[in-house]
Amino acid sequence: MLFYKEYSRVVKKNLRPGNQVNLVDILVDLQFLDRFEVGDPESELCLLISKFIDNFMVYSKSGEYTGESEDIIKNLFKVLCAIMDFKLH
Questions:
Q1: Measuring CA to CA, which residue among 32, 26, 1 is closest to residue 12?
Q2: Domain annotation covers residue 9
Q3: Which of 8, 46, 69, 86 fits a 20 to 30 Å CA distance from 24?
């Protein structure tokens, strides 16, 4: 339950102008990705992210996903729980 609260807080915190949430921002704030690696323009991870940044949007209130964005957010939570070996009830 504690991770769910933190996840929800991070998703709300990372709401960008245009009412969008980016996957990379969530993963950095939850410490699944290293903030310095993501921000280092010399790293392969940073180059990959900058190349495909538009494809990393996981939530949008502006209608891009119309009904699917909540499923994406819920499924991302489940995937992160599985990575950490948390049991969902």
A1: 26
A2: yes
A3: 86
Whether the per-residue pLDDT at 65 is higher than 80: the answer is no
Where does the pLDDT of residue 61 fall: very low under 50, low under 70, confident under 90, or very high at 90 and above?
Answer: low
Q: Range of 58's domain? A: 2-83
pLDDT digits (tens, 9 = 90+) for 21-53: 888 889 999 999 898 888 888 888 888 888 887
Per DSSP bridges, beta strands 20-22 and 57-60 are antiparallel
Q: Which element (helix H / strand E) includes 2?
A: helix 2-13
* Pick from 38, 23, 30, 41: nearest CA to 6: 30
In a domain, 70, yes or no: yes
Looking at the domain assignment, is residue 89 inside a domain? no
Does the structure show a pLDDT above 90 at 17? no
Q: Is the pLDDT assigned to residue 89 strictly greater than 60? A: yes
Kindly state whether residue 43 falls inside one of the protein's structural domains: yes
The strand pairing partners of 57, in sequence order, are 22
